[in-house]
Amino acid sequence: MSETPTTPASTPEPAPPRPRWRIGEDWAATVTGLVLLGLALLGVIPAGLVP
Amino acid sequence: MAMHTPGPGEDASRADGAGATGTADGTAVGPDDTAGGPEGGVTGDGGADAREDADAPRGPGAPLWSALGLLVVLALAAATRFLESWVPAAAEGSPLGGFAEAVEYPVYAILLGLLGNLVLSLLGVRDRLAPAFRTEFLIKTGLVLLGSTVLFDVIAQAAGPAVLQALFLVTSVFLFTWWVGGKLGLDDRLRALLASSVSICGVSAAIAAAGAVQARREQLAYTASLVILFAVPSIFLLPWLVGVLGLSTAQAGAWIGGNIDTTAAVAASGAIVGEEALQIASIVKATQNVLMGVVAVLLTAYFAFRVAPAEGGGAVERPGLRTLWDRFPKFVLGFLAASVAATLWSNGPAADPQAGLDTARALRDWFLIAAFTSIGLEFKLGSLREAGWRPIGVFGLATVFNLAVGLLLAVLLFRGFAF
User: Fold this and answer.
1) pLDDT higher for B217 or B416?
2) Mean pLDDT score, B353-382
3) Using one digit for the tens of pLDDT, what is the confidence trace for A12-41?
4) How does it sit in the membrane (chain B) (predicted)?
5) How far from B396 is each of A21, B79, B240, B399, CA to CA, in Å?
6) Pairing of strands B27-28, A4-5
7) Does residue B227 sit within a domain?
């Protein structure tokens, strides 16, 4: 997590380079859940494999 | 956790101006971080992340520790599945048989998580393993899969009362917490964090609010600690009160979903009451989650136009549609999509549509159990000692208010709800 100084008098530091692209945890969970659901419905994850 | 403590209730300018917090404590959570908002990257949404980023292990050994942490979570989840079937069978016929039958899997999961937390802390490896304890990711994935077990007509039926409850509850609890925080002299930014976390969805809302108001990092840490402190006992207390009050499963789910702050704890508590309560609790909580974006925009506007100019600042991000979308909990879309897909699938031409849905339900249970064990593994009592009594008092009063108003709304709005 990058940080921003709050003290107005402080010298601003150059922001660290941010990744060009990254997936948020929210999207990661959404995609993971939907992919797993699709695999379960299509039988790629066979019934009985998950106890 | 090394945290300097200017006291969360201190005036912000005093704390900052004193320069007492020259390290990470003296920094705000800038809007660009999304302060861990939904877009905040893989570390963005977890409550512990805000507190522990600085402590997280780095270097070449970090992936190995993370893998070990994941193994710990999986092992505890497997132990939970074992206990939930073994304990009732072993206790059958004994005086404890009825009690053992009534204990649901979230209880085992959280207790095992707390036990694991203690053991790992004693061994001195807990913080190294902590990056694998992804409660938020696990619970959100579990909730997306939960969507596949909720027929879409249940969501459609519950949507009206859930939206009404969320609007009334979020507004009243937010304003009450803000008012009490003001009476006890808390800093405006801490008031915003406490009010958001109690009224909406715990740590995620606090993180979103922290980005909106540029709160100091330790204020977010205090708030996150308070959320966990109050959420863990609520997981067990509310199902007990549901029995005492004689609420229906829908009312119980609505009350739990509207009161417990963190989504994972809501799911755990709802699951203790039962499957139907879990479904309604998740729908109600998801509805509250959606309001996080609206509150973040309003807070951003308030601090940009009222607070920052008064403090001689003005660098607060201006709100807009982009902010609204950034704070929108995307997993809610996944939850709805999964429900629609499962409803269509169960009415489709597949020879045995239930087989795939059963697999999805089993996966859902594994993700939920892993999330519940992570609640126990992430729990830290130590940082609360640094919070001081005023934020705890505000949080406690707001929780009591939330319980009372939430009970009234749940009873009224979900009266006669039928599955």
Assistant:
1) B416
2) 88
3) 445 555 555 567 888 999 999 999 999 999
4) Multi-pass membrane protein
5) 40, 34, 19, 5
6) antiparallel
7) yes
Count of domains for chain B: 1
Tell me which of B53, B136, B141, B368 to substitute to probe the interface with A (most A C-beta atoms closer than 10 Å): B141
In the 8-state DSSP scheme, what is residue B104? Answer: -
Q: Which residue of A has its CA nearest to B85?
A: A51
* Gap from B99 CA to chain A (nearest CA, Å): 24
pLDDT digits (tens, 9 = 90+) for B39-71: 333 233 333 344 444 445 566 678 899 999 999
Answer for the pair B177, B195: CB distance below 8 angstroms, yes or no: yes
Contacts of B216 in chain A (CB under 8 A): 6
B238 part of a folded domain? yes
- CA of B333 to nearest chain A CA: how many angstroms apart? 8
Instruction: With respect to residue B126, please indicate whether it lies within any of the assigned structural domains.
Output: no
pLDDT for position B100: 80
Neighbouring C-beta atoms of residue B214, cutoff 10 Å: 25
Structure tokens at B235: 């997981």
Nearest to B333 by CA among A17, A36, A16, A33: A33
ipTM > 0.90, yes or no: no
Whether B43 contacts chain A with CB within 8 A: yes
With respect to residue B130, please indicate whether it lies within any of the assigned structural domains.
no
Q: How does pLDDT run across B228-260, given as a tens digit for each residue? A: 888 888 999 999 999 999 999 999 999 999 999
Residue B225 has pLDDT above 50, yes or no: yes
B381-388: Cβ within 8 A, 24+ apart: B381/B229, B382/B1, B383/B1, B383/B3, B383/B51, B383/B221, B383/B222, B383/B225, B384/B225, B384/B226, B384/B229, B386/B3, B386/B5, B386/B218, B386/B222, B387/B8, B387/B222, B387/B225, B387/B226, B388/B7, B388/B8, B388/B9
With residues binned 3-state (H G I as helix, E B as strand, rest as coil), the percentages for chain A, rounded to 5, are 35, 5, 65
Domain of B353 in residue numbering reads as 140-413
Q: Is B292 a residue whose pLDDT tops 50? A: yes
